[in-house]
Design brief:
Elements: H1 7-16, H2 23-31, H3 40-50, H4 54-59, H5 62-66, H6 72-96, H7 103-114, E1 121-127, E2 133-141, H8 151-160, E3 165-171, H9 181-195, E4 200-208, E5 211-214, H10 215-218
Helix pairs in contact: 2-3, 6-7, 8-9
Amino acid sequence: MPATCLERPRERLLARGPAALTDAELIAVWLSTGTTRASAIEIAQTMVSEFSGLSGVVNAPVDALARVHGVGPARAAQLRAGVEIARRAVHEALVRGDALSSPEAVRAYLRHVLAARPVEVFVGLFLDSQHRLVAAEELFQGTLAQTSVYPREVVKAALAYNAAAVIFAHNHPSGAAEPSRADELLTQSLKAALALVDIRTLDHFVVAGAEVISFAERGLL
């Protein structure tokens, strides 16, 4: 199918912005052209289906992307580079700004880091006294359903970074973003342990796909 099949999504993107396009259409614009066997939009639809959605596509290994007909190693590498550019951009926004006054930047970063992880991962965002990001570290990794988090290790990490405050986050691979009672108890335990060394716990986010829930906004801190 000729490359002109892309004109409509590309024109709509230019006229109305990228939010007006479907996931497959965005990928098709990135692909630019198809092959003699499939159009760019057909290749994109195959990718979305094979990797279970856009987050699956952008987090898929390069070799898995390259095996899709019409993608190949070069386009797979370009996609991974684009994803890394986006991750670094939101990371830079946190480094330069106040994490508390940029909640959407925090959410965007956490979606990039956690949304597509197949197992539960617990991360800490360590902040200075101005609430600027000093470091982001993956502290613990578990199974599909749970991970074990040790307050002593979290305190050690916070002191190593000379952090004044911490934001925690973990993902729910099940897709249910609602915090569990165990999540609430862990947060209180971490908050108490960090308070002993005068480090504030500012928030704890739960990430499930595109949804990100804040403990602070729920009044759970």
